[in-house]
Design a protein that fits this description.
Layout lengths: L6 H68 L8 H26 L5 H15 L7 H21 L8 H29 L7 H27 L6 H26 L8 H78 L9 H18 L3 E8 L2 H8 L1 H18 L6 E6 L2 E7 L3 H16 L16 E8 L7 H17 L5 E6 L2
Parallel strand pairs: 4-5
Antiparallel strand pairs: 1-3, 1-4, 2-3
Length: 513
C-alpha cells in the first residue's frame, strides 16, 4: 500500500530547519575555534620570534666575549708581551672572524629588514676592527654598540615584551644585566692589564666607577634572583654562588691591590689572567641563564603547539558531534513527524487511512489517472446491519469486528498502490487502479467473500448468519468527468442499490464522461 503521502512537505521543511540549525552551530563553532587557533598561533609565532632573536643575541654576545678578551690582551704593556700572548690574540681574532661569517651566512637566509641591515653593518665593523693595532677605546666602542644592538634585537623579537614571569626574569638577567656586568668587569680587566707598576689617578677613578656600576647591577641581580623561586635547579644556583664569590674577590682585589696600593707587584699578564678568572664565573652563569631561557621558551612553544593540535582535534570532534547530534535529532524528529502524520491520516481503531486522507488521496489519484490515462476504481463498503450487531453483541464486539474486517481488507488488497480507508462508522473505501472491469468485479467479490468467510456470527443479519458487507463499485475511465463529489455520490448510490437488493452484493457503476 502507498504510505506517507503527506509527509514529504513537512519532512523537507524539517530537513531545511535542521540544516539551518546545524550550519549555524558549525559556523559559531568554527568562529570560536578559529579565533582560538589564531590567538594561540600568534602566541606561537611570537615565541618562535623570541627563540630566533635569542639565538642572534647569544651569537653576538659570543663575539663580544671574544672582543672583550682581545681588548684585555691587546692592552697589556708591549714590554711585557710574550709570544704566547700574540698566539692567543691570533686565535681570538680567528674565532671572531669565524663567528662573524657564520652569523652573516644565517642572515642571508632571512628576509632583509632594517634590523638585519644593522646587524650586518655591525658585523662588518667588527671584522674590520679586530687587528692587532686597535686600541682600547675602539674595541670598547664596538662592545658598546653590541649592547645597543642586543637591546634592539630583544625588542624586535618581542623578548623584552614577554609576559611570562619566569622567562621575563631570565630575559632581564641574560640580555640586560649579565652582558653589562661582563663588560664592566672587562673594562676593569683592560685597565688592570695596562698598568705598568704604578696605578695612575685617571685609571684609579675609572676602576672606582666600574666597581660602582657593578655594585648597582648586583643589587638588581640579587633582587631578581629572589623572584626566581620557580627555579630549583642546583646547578643554576651553584653557578650563581660561584659568580657572587668571584665578584666579591674581584672587588676585594681591585680595592686592596690596585686602588689602595701605590705600587703593583704583579705583571700586566698576571692581572689579565686573574681578572679573566673572575669574568669566567660571570660567563658561566650567563651561559646557564641562556640555557635555562632557551629551555623555558622551547617548553612554552611545545605547549602552544600541543594546544594548537588539541584545538584542531577538538574542533573536528565538536563538528562531528554536531553532525551526529543533529543527525540523531533529525531522524528522531523525522520519525516523530511520521508518527504525527500517520496519526493524523490514520483511523485510531482500525489503523486504516481515515476519511481526511481519503479526500486528499482520491483527488490526487484522479489527477494521476488523467495524466497516465488509466482506469481508477473506487469501492464503497458498508457492513450489513451493523447497528443490530452492536445492539446484540455490544459495542466492544462491534469494534473487534471492525478490526477483523480491516485486517481482511488489507490482506486482500496487496498491490503497492492499493489503498484501504475507513470512511466513518462501519463504512470503508477502496482505491485501486489499472485493472479491467472484470478484474475489478472479481476483486470486489473476493473482498465480499473473504469478509463472510471470517465467519463472525451475526444473528441480526438478513443476508447471512455471519457478518457480510455490501459494495458499491465505481469504475472510472480516463475520459470521465472527474468531479470528486459527483463520483462519490454516484458510488454511494451504487452501494445503496446493493443494500436495497438484498445486501451482501456488489453493485457496479461506470463513469465514462
Amino acid at each position: 500500500m502507498e504510505e506517507y503521502h503527506l509527509l514529504d512537505y513537512k519532512q523537507n521543511k524539517s530537513f531545511k530547519y535542521f540544516i539551518f540549525i546545524m550550519l549555524a552551530a558549525i559556523i559559531a563553532t568554527t568562529f570560536v575555534f578559529t579565533y582560538s587557533y589564531i590567538y594561540v598561533k600568534n602566541e606561537l609565532t611570537t615565541m618562535n620570534q623570541e627563540i630566533t632573536g635569542l639565538n642572534k643575541i647569544v651569537k653576538i654576545e659570543n663575539i663580544v666575549l671574544d672582543i672583550q678578551k682581545l681588548r684585555g690582551l691587546q692592552n697589556i704593556s708591549k714590554s711585557m708581551a710574550k709570544n704566547i700572548q700574540k698566539k692567543q690574540i691570533k686565535i681570538i681574532q680567528n674565532s671572531i672572524n669565524s663567528k662573524v661569517r657564520g652569523l652573516k651566512n644565517e642572515l642571508k637566509d632571512e628576509k632583509e629588514d632594517i634590523l638585519s641591515q644593522r646587524i650586518n653593518y655591525y658585523l662588518s665593523n667588527v671584522k674590520s676592527g679586530i687587528n692587532f693595532n686597535n686600541d682600547f677605546k675602539h674595541l670598547s666602542k664596538l662592545i658598546e654598540e653590541s649592547l645597543i644592538l642586543i637591546e634592539e634585537i630583544s625588542y624586535n623579537s618581542k623578548l623584552s615584551m614577554d609576559g611570562n614571569m619566569k622567562s621575563n626574569i631570565l630575559i632581564e638577567t641574560s640580555i640586560k644585566i649579565l652582558p653589562s656586568l661582563i663588560e664592566y668587569n672587562g673594562i676593569i680587566r683592560g685597565i688592570s692589564s695596562s698598568i705598568k707598576g704604578e696605578l695612575t689617578l685617571e685609571k684609579r677613578e675609572l676602576l672606582i666607577i666600574q666597581l660602582s656600576k657593578i655594585d648597582e647591577l648586583f643589587k638588581k641581580l640579587n633582587f631578581i634572583m629572589t623572584l626566581n623561586k620557580d627555579n630549583n635547579k642546583k646547578l643554576f644556583y651553584k653557578k650563581y654562588k660561584l659568580m657572587v664569590q668571584g665578584q666579591l674577590s674581584l672587588k676585594h682585589f681591585t680595592n686592596n691591590t690596585l686602588i689602595n696600593n701605590g705600587k703593583i707587584s704583579i705583571t700586566s699578564y698576571e692581572l689579565f689572567e686573574l681578572n679573566t678568572k673572575y669574568i669566567n664565573s660571570i660567563i658561566n652563569f650567563y651561559k646557564i641563564n641562556i640555557k635555562e631561557l632557551n629551555e623555558t621558551l622551547y617548553s612554552r612553544t611545545f605547549e602552544k603547539e600541543k594546544i594548537l593540535v588539541s584545538i584542531v582535534i577538538l574542533y573536528i570532534l565538536v563538528i562531528l558531534s554536531i553532525l551526529l547530534v543533529n543527525k540523531i535529532f533529525y531522524n528522531k524528529n523525522k520519525d516523530f513527524i511520521k508518527q504525527i502524520e500517520i496519526i493524523s491520516i490514520t483511523d485510531g481503531l482500525t489503523k486504516l487511512y481515515n476519511r481526511r486522507y481519503f479526500d486528499i488521496e482520491f483527488e490526487k489519484q484522479l489527477k494521476i489517472q488523467v495524466r497516465n490515462k488509466q482506469s481508477l476504481i473506487f469501492v464503497m463498503i458498508d457492513v450489513d446491519h451493523f447497528k443490530q450487531f452492536n445492539d446484540i453483541y455490544g459495542h466492544q464486539s462491534g469494534d473487534n469486528a471492525l478490526i477483523d474486517i480491516s485486517s481482511c481488507l488489507n490482506e486482500t488488497l496487496r498491490r503497492p498502490n492499493d489503498m484501504v480507508f475507513r470512511l466513518g462508522g462501519e463504512e470503508f473505501g477502496l482505491l485501486f487502479n489499472n485493472v479491467s472491469e472484470e478484474q475489478a468485479m472479481l476483486l470486489a467479490n473476493k473482498v465480499k467473500n473473504n469478509i463472510e468467510n471470517l465467519k463472525i456470527e451475526h444473528e441480526g443479519n438478513s443476508a447471512s448468519d455471519f457478518v457480510t458487507i455490501s459494495l458499491g463499485l465505481m469504475y472510472i475511465l480516463p475520459n470521465c468527468n472527474n468531479n470528486v463529489q459527483k463520483l462519490y455520490n454516484s458510488t454511494d448510490k451504487a452501494l445503496y442499490k446493493a443494500k436495497s437488493s438484498g445486501r451482501n452484493k456488489v453493485q457496479k457503476v461506470i463513469c465514462t464522461n
